[in-house]
Amino acid sequence: MGQSWFLRQMAYEFVAARLTSDAYTVLRAVEMDIGAGWRINVDNTSSVYQQPMSGHYYQVAVDGKWFFSRSLWDSQIPAEVGQDIGQDNIRLIQQNNKPALVYSKTFMKQGREIQVMLAEDISRIEESLNQLGWLMVGLGLIGLIILLVLQISIIRRGLRSLKEVKQDISRLKSGEIRQLSSTNTQEIEPLVTEINYLVQNMELRLQRSRNAVGNLAHAAKTPLTVIDRHIDTLLEQGMPQGPVIKEQSQRLRQMIDRELTRARIAGAALPGQRIYVGEELEKLIRTLKAIYREKALVFDLDVSAKSYFPGERDDLVELLGNLLDNACKWAESQIRINAHMDEHCLELIVEDDGPGVPAEARERLMNRGERLDESTSGHGLGMSIINEIVRQYQGRIMLDSSEPLGGLKVMVMLPRRVDPELVKQN
């Protein structure tokens, strides 16, 4: 619109300059003929004023008498009407239903006032300007469409890179890759670099932490062996402190063995890797079948393939290990395991056909070091450890009687998304 107005004003200025020049030509053609009075010498005017309806007109007033160009035919140039266009002595009017610019000015010649009015048809100019305006609109639309296509192409290219990054993150979670692949999109490459740096840093820190725990536990075994020898000496001498210290020493040794086993099992885990419950259950069941070989236990599994643990692998191993170890310890012959995940949480259910736990004693079972049956081996830490892990992941644990098997039923529910701040507080 701005360009169209600018071009129209330029055209009006060009026509106004020509009308001003023609006005002086017409004024020069006004002559005094002795005997006939004032007249217009048409030989001194342009030929376009002699052609009827040529689009170029003039009319001149001298002493109240009007002289008209032949091109006006029987019409006249309207006076004192029209639209001001910002040019001196120039108005825009409608002449014979066509737009025209009119120049009007009064001159003095030979002591007489002479009013000169010239008009020029600008319908062709307006038509050309309209065509130019539509052409510019068309070119603008084409340019806009090209820009939109380019923008969509750029956005799709960026989103394609993000889609590849998303697929790489899924592969990273499943353990297929250890780092995200590089991308050709310059804007996304820093994000990929930062994620790779974060994964690598987490992996190093986790590995160092596990190694430190394993080394500490391994280093503690030698001093503990020396202590055991002194305990044996106390027992041989019949000292009353011997059995108490011996019990605490055995408890400490089992805790060290547990930490060493945990560090060994979790050594290959990657940070961010999705840990599927079914895969870990198979490994644990093979180990427990070997430990409780004399019971010939039967494991009945109902585990969905998409069930995964929303946390670290060693926590899952410890959680399942304690749940299944308790079940194996008390089961007669059968253990039933269910694991399913919906859009909110992971649900784990372990049932056995053992004697079960009375309702009034189930709360005590969660206390650290609490043992309901002193005739079996153990230190009363299993359910306490399970409860602690569930609490860290903001989950729930419930104890009940198994209706189909008659023993204890342990149900654990873990949310898929954990609030990191609450975990840190725990």
Brief rundown of the structure:
With 426 residues, this protein is an alpha+beta fold. 49% of the residues lie in helices and 21% in strands.
Main attributes of the structure:
single chain, 426 residues, six-stranded antiparallel β-sheet, 9 helices, 15 strands, disordered C terminus, transmembrane, membrane, kinase activity, phosphoprotein
Detailed description of the structure:
This protein is α+β, with helices and mostly antiparallel strands and 426 residues long. Helices cover 49% and strands 21% of the residues. It is built from 9 helices and 15 strands. A 6-stranded antiparallel beta sheet has the order 4-3-8-7-6-5, covered by helices on one side. Strands 10-12-13-15-14 form a 5-stranded mixed beta sheet, with helices on one face. Strand 1 and strand 2 form a beta hairpin. The radius of gyration is 51 Å and the shape is rod-shaped. The protein starts with a helix and ends with a helix. The C terminus is likely disordered. It comes from Amphritea atlantica. Its main location: membrane. It is found in: Membrane. InterPro entries: HATPase_C_sf, HATPase_dom, His_kinase_dom, HisK_dim/P_dom, HisK_dim/P_sf, PhoQ/CarS-like_HATPase, Sig_transdc_His_kin-like_C, TCS_sensor_his_kinase. Its EC number is 2.7.13.3.
